[in-house]
Amino acid sequence: MSYRARIKQLEEMHQSLHKQIDNMERNHPHVEVEKLANLKKQKLQIKDEISKLNRLQWEEETQRVGYGDE
User: Fold this and answer.
1) What is the predicted pLDDT for the residue at 50?
2) Closest CA to 40 of 63, 64, 14, 61
């Protein structure tokens, strides 16, 4: 799977978690704190993975173009 495809997949997962968390916080004031914390942790892990893949993609593209030859 290409970086772009994986990043897109992760971004969709991140957005889905964001909506789920937002819904829980707005509509369920007595939500399980642990469940909400786990969802937020998952969301953060996905965001970190997106950042990592963006960096790797950028590094690969700059290597191909030759910016890393200085």
Assistant:
1) 98
2) 14
